[in-house]
């Protein structure tokens, strides 16, 4: 909890509600009264808003690389959140790297700020060498 408080303070986002939203997102105990007046829908909405503010504030400090693997498993709320980041009017110093199966096409794929780099599957020999190196 201390690290969350420190991070929020560093980014100028410290409040009991913001701390409560992050703790709730992580499945941790929320301090009494931190989310008073918020139902489940509002908690989700406020959490996504906070995450966007958090990312924007963090990108102002220094460039950020955000890596998301297996994007094809994304849920609707997270897909909408990433779309807002891609379409943001605010120019973020952000490199968003994602991996996905070819059959999934995110709605923002055709945006001018998006580049795609299709990769071929690893050959068996390459996979075996990587596996052996990782286990060695």
Give your account of this protein's structure.
With 136 residues, the chain is mainly alpha-helical. 47% of the residues lie in helices and 7% in strands. It has helices at residues 2-10, 16-25, 40-61, 76-86, 124-135; strands at residues 64-68, 94-98. It has a two-stranded parallel sheet with strand order 1-2. Helix 4 links the parallel strand 1 (64-68) and strand 2 (94-98). The longest helix is centred in the middle third of the chain and has 22 residues, at 40-61. The mean pLDDT is 92.
Task: Write the SSE topology.
Blueprint: H1 2-10, H2 16-25, H3 40-61, E1 64-68, H4 76-86, E2 94-98, H5 124-135
Parallel strand pairs: 1-2
In short, what is this structure?
With 136 residues, the chain is mainly alpha-helical. Helix content is 47%, strand content 7%. The protein has helices at residues 2-10, 16-25, 40-61, 76-86, 124-135, and strands spanning 64-68, 94-98.
Weakly predicted, low-confidence segments: none
H/E element sequence = HHHEHEH
The overall strand count is 2
Helical percent range? 40-55%
Could you say which overall geometry the principal axes of the C-alpha atoms support? globular
């Amino acid at each position: 909890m201390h690290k969350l408080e420190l991070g929020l303070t560093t980014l100028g986002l410290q409040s009991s509600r913001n701390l409560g939203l992050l703790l709730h997102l992580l499945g941790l105990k929320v301090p009494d009264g931190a989310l008073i007046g918020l139902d489940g829908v509002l908690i989700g909405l406020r959490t996504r808003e906070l995450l966007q503010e958090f990312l924007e504030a963090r990108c102002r400090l220094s460039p950020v690389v955000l890596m998301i693997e297996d994007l094809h498993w994304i849920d609707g709320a997270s897909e909408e959140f990433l779309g807002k980041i891609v379409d943001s009017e605010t120019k973020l110093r952000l490199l968003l790297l994602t991996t996905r199966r070819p059959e999934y096409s995110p709605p923002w794929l055709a945006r001018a700020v998006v580049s795609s780099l299709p990769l071929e599957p690893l050959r068996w020999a390459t996979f075996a060498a990587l596996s052996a190196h990782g286990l060695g």
